[in-house]
């Protein structure tokens, strides 16, 4: 061992001890006849002092140390004259008696500090240096701690972690698969799993009862800022359970993580909201309930006053923004511009200001009297000083737009602090989604999700109304995970495939082995998957999952550090019996 | 929840309780006016009794249950009249008052019992049923427990589990890579990692100090009985350490696993043997030291008696097999046939029997007197009743053959019981292996392994003699894992690449990003990887790793359950800008 102590552990009580530390030179500075060197490792930073008076050669050597040199220092722990209480080791320093340079370093291309001068691209190219900075390191430490605590909780609850294969069968349903040519079976390919869904259901058929896995999943999608081609999910499945059992088990897991990782106690049950109410009150199936401003529908109240926008609208609703009656014209114009952005898609915004003195101003004074507007204010539970923001249009689209506006107002008012967490369950999702383009139903979750037993009679008569036994856990407006009770009856599964437009042959081809398995006594079962990268980014209070991953890919799916993907040796292609298509094909 | 108790938990103290269990029908039998049904789940088997006298309809329904039906039974726990003490629940039974069939089952293609009538291929095709049998289930439970305890030990020792990518850069050195075409970067490919070697070394450069991962690794090799295209390794790396530190840490890990998983205490340090001694005494770099029979070299002793085989041999050595002097001619002939098999490759076998009365018989009486042979016996520490088995020939080949013979004798004498474990460290491996065919040196471990510092002066002058700072942990004749101290000095690394025949360009192309990383202050570091599948199979006392894997591939790399790999949709190939070569190319 090159050290007797790490750079993070020495304290006042260690004074007088002879120690050896090893680490990287964070910085070195000369002051009078002394050279001070901060030595850093994963555990902290310790100040080392070289005195010219005591050992001139050593002090000279120390003053020549470059940034990021790897050094080993032996010396005596002493109390500092001027303490640095921001540093856990800030009360001591080491008076060096020996110095060994274990490795030199070129000058790094950016400073190894949280507040670095390195841009994003440079830091990704030199990711191994980027990871020396405290913030990325803390993110990976958090990730480790969370994974460990997830395993501890699930193990204690009788779950077995079972590894499912990475080389699986390609199923062209869903997102695009990454595929792997098989040399031993020329012309055939494996796929990388988009999730272990089918395997975990097979494990329930096998009687494993409680399964989990921190599973690597792969999707060949065009990457957006917050997507990675490979990601990790906490994948779970249980047998002989109903929705309530799954929700309780994983609410327990989420509480456990908050408790043991963030020291946050959730003493109450997480709120639950139906999908229908989530859309009605928040215009989103993943509402951020850190703040209020729930939608109030005004469709009927606003009709018949000659304002065509509202008279003709299928739906009108608004939010009451507390304390913003003083918004200037510039500010309300900004909001109007915000809702008219193509991503939001509203045609305009109606605002009503309820001044502190009770007087009312609005953008629709031409059509509505103060009394009319007071009725609105009453319906929306507005107080003096509040600002009403109202949108009209087709129901689904308008709800979505108003939902975005609500989040924007939450941001503006600072009501979405990253260190405050508001989890909830969204339940009773629709089983099917209608797609206008292809004129068919798609499974909102996946084709194995069980309908709500009460709605089974509606499957053929009122397909779109059938609710699923599906549930999402949402935190701060982000879907942390979701799951469902699965169909365990093969006749019901056949019905589902039929409603989803699978011919029996196609269903057999793609899911045959699962359907066959179900003939041999499938137990009732259900489960859930949590996005692990997302979960970590949430607790790390990050905007992106990328910073929770040691070696992420960029938006083109490239690792700029090792320059992959890369061309193959022609011999490798030959062995795989493959050839490249001309690129202009 | 469909149950109030599992099928494994009810005991005498539960008598009188009303309970509900759910599980699979293991078997049902009628006796007089009663039907007995054994209900099975992951946790055990519970006997349920239906009495015709109490409820005729229910009893009739129960008698119609087929094997593997999924049932839910409510009833009262009662003490059994005739107890089955082989079953943890064997003192009680449930007197059923309700029975619900949750799912029917076709008759399974083989019996769901350890002693099944299903052949290997059938069980693999219906792996989800095979996994219902107690033995495969126990193997996966053991695997879970071992993974959990490995994580617990390493976490307690300050290691962080860090996920490294699965989509990596292809490096055509070493075994063959599986590759993944990139749709977003046409003509380019990712590879699946053969190990996280480079990433873990980068993590040391990043200052993570102690890393581990239960890592999925991939090798596209022609499969032998005990290989899988994807496998799991316990991958670890530490900074600022020397060989002694790594060995101590992972000896601690192995001891922890034996203690907490098998309740076996290793109180002594594991023995260590140099590679040279392992070859000298056991003819193998992974000696099985559950038993003795160490080689004794007789090269000089046996020369000069006119026996050309020994006179001309570079090397003669033997093993002393205790208590086998009574072997018949048939038995010694069998052993001769054994060593002459092409896999062993010896030309013949010399035997000497030391009878209990001290008289001596041998296969070389023509050339050697009894006094000569007594000298052999003395050199080999033989006792009356022992059998000496002796081989001659070229050193390396003969050692290997004698090693195989030693293992064979261990098997014959029952000296290799699976439930006895004899770990040891093999150290001081050679750094290089000479390959006659290509007339160049190869790295015995990998090109990042550090030479023994004492041998650095020999690098250019006596390359083949240089020892590596590399170590394997061997248990019962199987390599459980191995590792090395790595080169952290980029000049020494350049020398290594040069000795291994890499041009600077080739080295830069393949390992450039690692070599660049090393310019920025790489700490001294080293690590180790354990074959996790192997480790599990060892503790499960299995012959093959396949039985430790939930969904393994067969020897052609196929999953016969889901029939992968499989052909792709032509549209998928087009998206990837790939086409298949004609198969007769």
Structure commentary:
The structure is a homodimer of 585-residue chains. Chain A is of the alpha+beta class and 585 residues long. Chain A has four domains: 12-103, OB fold (Dihydrolipoamide Acetyltransferase, E2P) (Beta Barrel); 135-263 and 531-574, BirA Bifunctional Protein, domain 2, CATH 3.30.930.10; 291-412, GAD-like domain (Gyrase A, domain 2, 2-Layer Sandwich), CATH 3.30.1360; 423-528, Bira Bifunctional Protein, Domain 2 (BirA Bifunctional Protein, domain 2, 2-Layer Sandwich). Chain A is 27% helix and 24% strand. Chain A contains 15 helices and 23 strands. Chain A has helices at residues 56-63, 120-125, 127-130, 134-156, 197-205, 243-262, 275-282, 308-311, 329-340, 370-379, 395-412, 490-499, 504-517, 532-539, 570-575, and strands spanning 18-31, 34-41, 44-51, 70-79, 92-103, 160-161, 179-181, 189-191, 210-218, 230-239, 272-274, 296-297, 315-321, 350-354, 360-362, 387-393, 423-427, 432-435, 440-443, 470-475, 478-485, 525-531, 578-580. In chain A, the strands form five sheets. Chain A has an eight-stranded mixed beta sheet with strand order 6-9-10-22-21-20-17-11, with helices on both faces. In chain A, β18 and β19 form a beta hairpin. The model of chain A has no long low-confidence stretch (mean pLDDT 94). Chains A and B meet through β1, α3, α4, β6 and β7 of A and β1, α3, α4, β6 and β7 of B.
């Amino acid at each position: 061992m090159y050290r007797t102590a790490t750079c993070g552990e020495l304290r006042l009580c260690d004074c007088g001890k002879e120690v050896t530390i090893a680490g990287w030179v964070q910085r070195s500075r000369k002051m009078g006849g002394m050279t001070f060197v901060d030595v850093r490792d994963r555990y902290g930073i310790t100040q080392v002092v070289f005195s010219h008076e005591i050992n001139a050669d050593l002090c000279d050597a120390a003053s020549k140390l470059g940034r990021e040199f790897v050094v080993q220092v032996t010396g005596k722990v002493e109390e500092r004259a001027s303490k640095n209480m921001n540093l856990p080791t800030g009360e001591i320093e080491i008076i060096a008696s020996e110095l060994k340079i274990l490795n030199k370093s070129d000058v790094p291309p950016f400073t190894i500090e949280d507040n670095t001068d390195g841009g994003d691209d440079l830091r990704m190219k030199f990711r191994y240096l980027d990871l020396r900075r405290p913030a990325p390191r803390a993110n990976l430490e958090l990730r480790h701690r969370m994974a460990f605590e997830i395993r501890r909780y699930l193990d204690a609850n009788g779950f077995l972690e079972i590894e499912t294969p990475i080389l699986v069968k390609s199923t062209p349903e869903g997102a695009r698969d990454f595929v792997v040519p098989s040399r031993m079976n020329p012309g055939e390919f494996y796929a990388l799993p988009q999730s272990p869904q089918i395997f975990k259901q097979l494990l329930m058929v096998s009687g494993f009862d409680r399964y989990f896995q921190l599973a690597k999943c792969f999707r060949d999608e065009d990457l957006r800022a917050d997507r990675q081609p490979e990601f990790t999910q906490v994948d779970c499945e249980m047998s002989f359970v109903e929705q309530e059992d799954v929700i309780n088990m994983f609410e327990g897991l989420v509480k456990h993580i908050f408790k043991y990782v963030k020291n946050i106690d959730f003493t109450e049950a997480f709120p639950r909201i139906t999908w229908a109410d989530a859309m009605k009150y928040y215009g989103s199936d993943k509402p951020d309930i850190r703040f209020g401003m729930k939608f109030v529908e005004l469709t009927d109240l606003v009709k018949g006053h000659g304002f065509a926008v509202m008279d003709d609208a299928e739906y009108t609703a608004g939010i009451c923004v507390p304390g913003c009656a003083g918004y200037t014209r510039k500010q309300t114009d900004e909001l109007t511009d915000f809702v008219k952005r193509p991503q939001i898609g509203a045609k305009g915004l109606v605002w009503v200001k309820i001044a502190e003195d009770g007087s009312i101003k609005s953008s629709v004074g031409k059509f509505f009297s103060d009394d009319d507007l007071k009725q609105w204010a009453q319906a929306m539970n507005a107080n003096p000083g509040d600002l009403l923001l109202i949108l009209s249009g087709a129901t689904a689209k308008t709800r979505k737009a108003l939902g975005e506006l609500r989040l924007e107002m939450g941001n503006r008012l600072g009501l979405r602090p990253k260190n405050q967490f508001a989890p909830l369950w969204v339940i009773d999702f629709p089983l099917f989604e209608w797609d206008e383009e292809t004129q068919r139903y798609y499974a909102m979750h996946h084709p194995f999700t069980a309908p709500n037993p009460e709605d089974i009679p509606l499957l053929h008569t009122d397909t779109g109304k059938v609710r699923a036994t599906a549930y999402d856990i949402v935190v701060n407006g982000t879907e942390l995970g979701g799951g469902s009770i699965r169909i365990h009856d093969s006749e019901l599964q056949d019905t589902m495939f039929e409603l989803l437009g699978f011919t029996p042959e196609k269903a057999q081809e793609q899911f045959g082995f699962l359907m066959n398995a179900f003939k041999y006594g499938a137990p009732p079962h259900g489960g859930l998957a949590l996005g692990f990268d997302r979960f970590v980014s949430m607790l790390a209070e990050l905007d992106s999952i990328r910073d929770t991953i040691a070696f992420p890919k960029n938006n083109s799916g490239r690792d700029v550090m090792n320059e992959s993907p890369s061309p193959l040796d022609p011999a490798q292609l030959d062995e795989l019996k493959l050839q490249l298509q001309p690129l202009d094909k």
